[in-house]
């Protein structure tokens, strides 16, 4: 099942990043975490495989513009039929029947009704003064007191959470007969008055589903350096004195939220998301990798590359290439990791491929031996299968090239990516999953002439490859024709 994080118009890049990081830390390997765009919400069949839809922080008006109408109708239907919704800050405002944000402040004011209406009342903010768009000037760490419903799920009784412009769920205590539960309250004095209560987080029963809305940002890691340097504040508004202890409390609180939503969460506050493995770039023929690296240097980051290393800062990933399979320098990786949410280290092999000991789940030497034998037997010159980029654990063999056009545009036809396991394998309709050990997971770059796009679309290339694999298995040896192997359109092959 998938946990989807909205990443379309209105979102804050940092909010999306922090949200995905926390979800990965607490929900992997039970769920696949993946972003979803407004277009995908409206046009793709994501609902049946979605365990949780998460709306991060940003600007509520952007959400309205992108999703009002068809998008909100699909979201409402999803939740009413048993789905789960989790909204932080702007994602919480967006899910309320009415909102009042900085009313009377002409530069900031946003008021009006909202289509989702999971919380059947008014959300008023900002709870604490000082908010500015695209700024951390009004950001702070606020104190939250947790109610018994979350305490029963393992939450601490209080914590300090990052806050930047969130609201208060007005008169929540009067809406219990409409399925509203108060989950947390602000402890600090509010700057907008306290006549309507101090509800900082609420749970709302919506048909057969549930929506959980939080005014603050507990999904943000305690003490994110960017936050602290921007706020420049101490005491009440600054970093908690014992931030390590508070970080554990934050994870316990988030884990309790997931359990309340019916999700399976990792219990250990020490657990971190799976560490994506180094990638290994090698080739069948001498000079193949050297030639490719020469082409890739055209898109390298000049100020960040050296004689034996090369950095390519692509759209969603920073790739650090190191010659001759040398292990990464920790300090170098840390420097790049601070600049990009996804940094991938690539060991390059311009001579012999890596030994089996370096890639115990995929014998690259054996693979190239079989590939060479096949090419020698073939009547046509075929270059598919090399160069090869292999990783024991990566997000997705598809995403790592498809989502990084700066890299993709330089890759030759036949370039192949293989993984033993994937943390966010991609499918149709924004579907994603955790691929288990034992599958053959790969993606191949194919330069398909645009003039064939209508009569021979790329999807049929996938289908033909799937057919050829099934045929190869069926005719491999005596008895193999009885293997119950099937194709799930257009390119998944499974046995059941």
From TrEMBL:
Organism from which the protein derives: Arthrobotrys conoides
Gene3D superfamilies: 3.40.50.880, Bira Bifunctional Protein, Domain 2
SUPFAM superfamilies: Class I glutamine amidotransferase-like, Class II aaRS and biotin synthetases
CDD domains given in the database record: GATase1_ScBLP_like
PANTHER family associated with the record: BIOTIN PROTEIN LIGASE, BIOTIN--PROTEIN LIGASE
Coiled coil region boundaries: none
One MF annotation (Gene Ontology) recorded for this entry: biotin--[biotin carboxyl-carrier protein] ligase activity
Record-linked InterPro entries: aa-tRNA-synth_II/BPL/LPL, Biotin-prot_ligase_N, BPL_LPL_catalytic, Class_I_gatase-like
Protein name (Swiss-Prot/TrEMBL): Biotin holocarboxylase synthetase, variant 6
Domain named BPL/LPL catalytic: residues: 373-496
A Pfam family the protein falls into: BPL_LplA_LipB
Cellular component aspect of the GO annotation: cytoplasm
């Amino acid at each position: 099942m998938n946990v989807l994080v909205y990443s379309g118009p209105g979102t804050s890049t940092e909010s999306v990043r922090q949200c995905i990081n926390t979800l990965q830390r607490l929900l992997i390997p039970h769920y696949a975490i993946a972003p979803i765009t407004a277009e995908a919400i409206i046009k793709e069949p994501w609902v049946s495989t979605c365990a949780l839809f998460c709306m991060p922080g940003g600007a509520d008006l952007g959400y309205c513009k992108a999703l009002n109408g068809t998008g909100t109708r699909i979201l409402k239907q999803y939740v009413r039929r048993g789905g789960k919704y989790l909204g932080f800050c702007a994602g919480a405002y967006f899910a309320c029947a009415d909102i009042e944000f900085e009313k009377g402040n002409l530069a900031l004011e946003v008021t009006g009704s909202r289509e989702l209406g999971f919380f059947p009342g008014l959300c008023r903010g900002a709870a604490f003064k000082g908010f500015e768009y695209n700024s951390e000037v009004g950001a702070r760490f606020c104190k939250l007191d947790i109610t018994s419903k979350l305490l029963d799920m393992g939450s601490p009784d209080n914590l300090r959470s990052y806050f930047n412009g969130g609201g208060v769920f007005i008169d929540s205590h009067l809406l219990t007969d409409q399925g509203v539960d108060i989950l947390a309250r602000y402890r600090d004095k509010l700057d907008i008055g306290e006549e309507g209560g101090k509800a900082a987080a609420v749970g709302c029963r919506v048909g057969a589903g549930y929506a959980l809305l939080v005014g603050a940002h507990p999904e943000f890691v305690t003490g994110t350096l960017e936050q602290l340097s921007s706020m420049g504040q101490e005491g009440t508004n600054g970093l908690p004195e014992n931030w390590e202890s508070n970080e554990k409390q934050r994870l316990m609180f988030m884990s309790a939220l997931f359990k309340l939503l019916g999700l399976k969460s990792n219990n250990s506050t020490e657990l971190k998301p799976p560490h994506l493995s180094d990638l290994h770039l090698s080739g069948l023929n001498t000079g193949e990798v050297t030639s490719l690296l020469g082409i890739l240097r055209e898109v390298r980051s000049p100020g960040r590359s050296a004689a034996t290393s090369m950095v390519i800062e692509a759209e969603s990933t920073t790739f650090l290439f190191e010659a001759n399979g040398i292990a990464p320098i920790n300090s170098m990786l840390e420097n790049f990791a601070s600049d990009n949410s996804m940094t991938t280290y690539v060991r390059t092999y311009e001579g012999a491929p890596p030994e089996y000991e370096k890639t115990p789940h995929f014998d690259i030497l054996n693979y190239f031996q079989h590939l060479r034998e096949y090419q020698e037997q073939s009547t046509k010159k075929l270059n598919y299968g090399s160069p090869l980029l292999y990783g024991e654990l990566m997000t997705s063999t598809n995403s790592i090239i498809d989502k990084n056009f700066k890299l993709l545009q330089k890759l030759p036809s036949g370039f192949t990516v293989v993984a033993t396991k994937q943390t966010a394998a991609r499918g149709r309709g924004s579907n994603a999953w955790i691929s288990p050990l034992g599958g053959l997971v790969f993606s191949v770059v194919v330069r398909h002439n645009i003039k064939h796009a209508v009569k021979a679309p790329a999807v049929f290339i996938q289908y033909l490859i799937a057919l050829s694999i099934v045929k190869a298995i069926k005719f491999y040896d005596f008895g193999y024709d009885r293997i119950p192997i099937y194709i799930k359109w257009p390119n998944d092959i499974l046995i059941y």
